[in-house]
Design brief:
The protein has seven helices and four strands. With 165 residues, the chain is α/β, with parallel strands linked by helices. Helix 2 runs parallel beside helix 7 and helix 5 crosses helix 6. The radius of gyration is 16 Å and the shape is globular.
Length: 165
């Protein structure tokens, strides 16, 4: 007899939560991943959907640092819409099959994955997060978003602990 031990809980994470190597050169704050966040996810045995990094897949690893305004072009938005659509497909599939998608974790100060703060700390979503929010709204899927702050990762981990418990 097969014992299915899935937690049936999922979090969606910005690529660099699990892979800081994808960040623009000179701004990776961790050697590999944001440990405080990953440790909480692992502790609660929650599955992860890792979104591709739109900046990396669009402009490469050696790309220059850019602001949201610099990235906000029709071609880059189209690229982010494709990622958002694919991510929303996965969210929808999990939800349709009785899983709980608990939160989408972005990374603050990112022009694409910021939730409350983009490159210049504006109070708005990054481009990928805007496109994902729009796509999920079209599909009537509600998943809260939270931005991880590099200087407050421990506090964000405590917040996440409450969500996953």
């Amino acid at each position: 007899m097969i014992q299915d031990k899935r937690s049936r809980k999922i979090v969606v994470v910005a690529h660099c939560v699990l892979n800081q190597n994808s960040r623009v050169q000179g701004i990776a704050y961790y050697a590999g991943m944001i440990n405080e966040i990953v440790d909480v996810i692992r502790k609660h045995e929650v599955g992860i959907i890792q979104m591709p990094c739109p900046e990396l897949t669009y402009a490469g690893l050696l790309r220059p640092s850019q602001t949201k305004e610099q990235y906000d072009t029709p071609a880059f938005r189209r690229h982010c819409r494709q990622i958002a659509s694919s991510t929303a497909d996965q969210v929808e599939e999990y939800v349709r099959n009785g899983f709980k998608v608990l939160v989408i974790l972005g990374v603050e100060d990112s022009p694409t994955c910021g939730v409350e703060e983009t490159s210049f700390r504006e109070a708005n979503l990054g481009i990928l997060m805007e496109e994902l929010q729009s796509e999920l709204k079209k599909r009537k899927a509600e998943v809260p978003m939270k931005g991880i702050k590099r200087t407050y990762a421990s506090e964000d981990a405590l917040w996440l602990e409450k969500i996953l418990t």
